[in-house]
Amino acid sequence: MQKLFIGILALTTVALGVLCVMQRKELRAANDKLQGAEQARVADTETREMQVARVKELERNEARLEKQLQEFTKVTTSLRVTEARQSSNLTTFAERMSAAKSKGGPAGEGDGALGKGMGEMLGKMMKDPAMREMMREQQKVAINMMYSGLFKDLNLSPEEKEKFKTLLTDAQMKNLDSAQGLFGGEDKQGSAEAIAKQTAEAKTQTDAEIKALLGDERFAIYEDYQKNMGERMQLDQFKSQIAAENMPLRDDQAVQLSQIMKEEKAAVPPIIPTDQTQMPTKEQLTAENLEKQMQWMEDYNRRVLARAQSVLSPDQFKQYQTFQEQQLSMQKLGMNMARQMFGGEKSGSAPAAPPPQ
Q1: Dmax (CA) of the chain
Q2: Residue 247 domain flag
Q3: Contact in structure between 87 and 78 (CB atoms under 8 Å)
Q4: Contact 280, 357 (CB under 8 A)
Q5: What is the value of pTM for the model shown?
Q6: Could you tell me the sign of the dihedral formed by the alpha carbons of 201, 206, 207, 209, in that order?
Q7: Is residue 265 part of a domain?
């Protein structure tokens, strides 16, 4: 009986052991399943958090783009208003010139009347301290745009750059002071000679100060930049224009196109100097020479365009051709206004006005 009882206990023990093993396996499987579910939950949570973050980022981008669109719309509207205002001003200006020409009096009196009025107006503006300061700030903005490439080429320190900009601004203000006499006066001959002398002396002084600041090597770079500033500014405008059309100008293309402009200008110099290093003389600024200058511009553009075809892609070349036509129209407008403003004499009696760039 005792042996039977022991046997039953042994069998029970074995059965319980087997049951424990089975339960342990089930528990392990349940734990594995629970762990997998937890990992899936964490992954799902991370995915949802990433999606929420992405949605928020897209919402921020959308808000930023909407703001930029609104700002762009405002700028576009402002530009259209400004363009319309300028067009109206030009129309009014042309009407006033026509009216001045139709007035009685000695021949040529009407041609310079508006110019004289502008000289008087400029003189009053330059005597007003607030207006003079405003014009100085405008010149600073213009200098930053005109000389931005040169500032990089010269590798100036912050102190040198600030001093250089001050010298350039001072020079521009001196030019504005001198410009008052370019629009006519009682003694045109004496006025023109005095202005030419004053301008030359101011330039000599400015060059000496800039050379002392930059040294011989960097001053030579500055002089070369001055001689080709008009072409550099046109090239910068063209680069910005075609970049907006998704056909950007490569650096090597810009260098080649700049060299072409420089070579063609040197090969056939303009009738009236177009760089910043020369002051046109009274004898150069005649109606006949202004007409020849327009013809030179057309010929210069044709020569540059012919060589540019080997540098630019077909699409870029088409854009450059259109750009040249726009620039030429603006230059012709400036020449026509100068001819009507300063008089239409055929030789040697026009005041020494700087040509449009």
Answers
A1: 156
A2: yes
A3: no
A4: no
A5: 0.56
A6: positive
A7: yes
